[in-house]
Structure formats: structure tokens, C-alpha cells
Amino acid sequence: MQLKIFADYHSLSEQCAREIASFVRQKPDAVLCLAAGDTPRLAYTCLRRIAGNENMNFAKCSFIALDEWVGIPPESEGSCYFFLRENLFKPLAIAPPQIHVFNALSPDLSSECERMDKLIREKGGIDLMLVGVGMNGHIGFNEPGTPEDRYTHVAELDDTTQNVGQKYFKKRTKLRFGITLGLRHLLESRKAILIASGRKKADVVRLALEDPVTTKVPASVIRKHSHGLVMLDEEAASALNNGRAGTP
Ligand code: F6R
Questions:
Q1: Ligand 1 centroid, distance to 42 Cα (angstroms)
Q2: In angstroms, what is the span from residue 102 Cα to ligand 1's centroid?
Q3: Which residues are part of the catalytic machinery?
Q4: Distance between CA 71 and CA 195 in Å, rounded?
Q5: Residue identifier of the C-alpha nearest atom 8 of ligand 1
Q6: 209-241: buried (b, 16+ CB within 10 Å) or exposed (e) per residue?
Q7: What is the tens place of the pLDDT at every residue in 34-77?
Q8: Residue with CA at minimum distance from ligand 1 atom 10
Q9: pLDDT (tens digit, 9 = 90+) per residue, 181-192?
Q10: Direct distance between the N- and C-terminal alpha carbons of the chain, in angstroms, rounded to an integer
């Protein structure tokens, strides 16, 4: 795993977008799995600009959404799909057959998990996975305690995730379960980027990067990924004791 620390959220986001763009240039038919959330928002803005300036073509890429809130319809402004659609799919003119998201309204969520796992297998696995980290150390909705060998599954969300998740919604919303790709998908992806920004993430970043790898802090598994890249801004890195070696 490699660690890169950037001065601020802007430079972190710019470099993250460049990582994605250069990956797609090298592998135009890449299978990309992308997180929603506040952290990658600006990286996606930068990616849109780079794509426009450099006339990038995503027509052969596949896009897989990392996760979704169970029971939340796709047109809800707080859904992961809505976020990815507004920030990436629509502006980059990604065609519907290239987009693979969860149906979080399905009455049969275990079939939904199987469908996603099968799709990823048939595509030959995930090439690039971009994830954020939750305040409780989660990746996607792999909550603390999730075993590393899980593929797609439905997770009962812990209190932190249920409360922090309210920030995506205009009014209080019941968020009890999530459907998510698993940590095994992360570990099997050809490249995994974890990004974190802001002082509020500093403690969980330190736990993930400096304490022993543990399922109690799911983000810590990124350290087992031989092509894992952790990208932080100075604030998110501010609690690290020995993380400065990775400063670009
Ligand atoms: C969202 C997702 C979540 C977030 C995490 C951080 O698709 O998978 O795990 O990445 O909760 O969220 P933000 O970026 O809003 O701090």
C-alpha cells in the first residue's frame, strides 16, 4: 500500500481525478467501482473537467456503484445512485448499459447480491475501486466487524452510519440497512484507492493506518492490498505519527 498526503482537499481531489483518468487512459475498458459521498464529490468535478479538456472516452468502461441504502428509491437525492448519476453518469454521458447499480427496493435482496457478484465475475473483476472511509472506519457499508472474505451483502448499519448518513437527506430518513460490495471485492480489485479528507476523519485514518489491521476498522484492510493507494489531505493525516514518509 502506498500513502500520499496532499496539502488540502482541492489538491487531493485533483490528484485523485488524475489517478482515475490515467487509469482509464491505460485501460479504456476498465471496470470502475466508485463510492458516493462528500469526499469524492470534488474529485468527480475534477474528473469531469479533465475528461472534457482531454476529450476522454469512457464508452468502453463499466461503472459499478459501491453501495446503496436499502429501501431508498434511486430518485431520492440521498441515494448513492442519485449522487453518481448527477456527478458522473449524466455529465460524462455514460450510457445506461455501462451502469450497474443496486436495486435497493428489491423484495429479494439476496438475489440482488448474487446478481452483483455474478456481474462482477463475468466482467473479470473490478479494475479500479475508489472508496471513502466512514467515521466508524467503514468502507462502503462494510461496517465494523465485517469479515474480509465477504462479497456483496446486506449490512445492518451501525448507529454512527445511520446518524452520519442523515447529511445526504433533506429530512430525517430511516437508514437501517445497506447493500454493499464486500471487502473481498476491494482486496481482489486490481487497484484500490481510499480517500479521506478533513480533521474529522483524522482519528479513524490513524486507526486504519497505524493500529493493527482489524475487522473492527474495515478501512485497515486497504493495507493488505498490494496495489492499494491511500490519498489524504493534511487534515485527515494530522493524527498520523509516522505517515509523513508518503508525502509527495
Ligand atoms: C458511499 C460509501 C461510504 C462513504 C463513507 C464516507 O458510497 O460507500 O462508505 O464513502 O461513509 O462518506 P463521506 O465521503 O460523505 O464522508
A1: 13
A2: 16
A3: 67, 136, 138, 143
A4: 27
A5: 140
A6: beeebebebbbbbbbebeebbbbbbbbbbbbbe
A7: 999 999 999 999 999 999 999 999 999 999 999 999 999 999 99
A8: 132
A9: 999 999 999 999
A10: 15
